[in-house]
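Message: A physicist's question: would you kindly supply an amino acid chain plus fold tokens?
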Amino acid sequence: MNFYDLQAEDLQGQTISFSQFRGKKVLLVNTASECGFTPQLAELQRLQDRFQGRLVVVGIPTNDFGGQEPLDNSEIGAFCASNYGVNFLLLAKGKTRGTDQHKVIRWLTTKSLNGVSSSKVWWNFQKYLVDEQGQLMNWYLPTTSPLASRLVRKIEGR
């Protein structure tokens, strides 16, 4: 399956076609509002602002780790906007594992789908970077700041 074939619902229930991301890098992150890494939301917004037109940040709220995302979709959007100034794309709440795994996360973590590597989502705020051609470039543990130089260099193409 091609990255650009993916579709998912946003927080408002609208279908988002990933084909609209062609020609841009995409950073996908599983998010949670009550995690110690939640302040990374502001860093993710700064990253998208810095690379506007070249990078799309996509948050995928999940409640799989410590029950740290108890909010529903409308509450998630309001929380992220009011507390961290988030205006990047947030998809509808999903799961990182199991038979109900979010289809975008399944693509990101399954080599037979993404053609690059398999991985496991370890905790909230794991990051996956996809290049302008829809190829998985790399993934980063939750402890990696969105503004870390090794991630920023990949976005810049270095």
The radius of gyration is 14 Å. The first strand starts at residue 7 and ends at 9.
